Sequence to fold (289 residues):
Amino acid sequence: MPFTPESVQLTEAGPGKPYLWTMTRELTWTGTFRGKVGRLLVPATVGAPFETDLASVPRFLTWLFPRYGKYTKAAVLHDYLCQSAGKETIAVYPTRDEGGDAATAGPELLRLRDRSDADEIFRLVMTELGVPWARRWLMWSAVSWATLLTSIVPGRRSKPLLRWAGRAILLAAVIAGALLAIAGGLDSIAAAAGAAIAFAGTVLAAGYVAQGRWDRWLVYLAALGMTVASIPLVAAGIAIGVLLVFYLLFEDLFSGFRATRAWLGRLVQPGPAVATSPRAERIEAVRDS
Fold:
């Protein structure tokens, strides 16, 4: 098995964190990454547990991709790697020499360049865990879109020139879409669908340029293809999401819209900083990468 231990034990993070789980025993993955045998460790102890939200799937899509399953350990590892992007986290062991003897040097710590490396390991580990092909590529496409989009956000790259180039591409796409709509070029379903696909491709190109990982163009094209192929599923998810909003409002009605008022209050006047969640930490990791 690539993981030690083979099963992870998770406990609830607390009453105020209904979607978070803690792990108190370290998790180790051993496998081959880009032709080299390596080992990745997710540190966790009783005194310093590791907190995870498992697979970061929006609630309106959990009917399609539950937050746990065959890919649970891959999701936990991906959480940690996203939080550690840019740090020396992967121990790569030297290959055997021509005589078959193991090299005498110790493991070499390598630095994951950015979150896209974490995404690649996520897909690789899901393959090892036996996650079906379509499911793992769709899940990888989702995390790749998140990586590409966040690469355009201010302060999340060390190369501002590339970030601004990506923004320029995105702005040009928005302007072109607005002019096309004004000119009446979106007067049919086919035209609107084609424009939406073209816009998605432009967003991908903008994130690709901002990220500066020129070796990933082929797999990102695959991500675009998987996105287009899953349009019916995404449309169903959006419809379920709308129904979910109405249900949550109905549920909140019996408490005097307490949750809704609290949410609106946070929009108007953000409160003091609180303990970060794995998702927030991953965003900050991208900011620093």
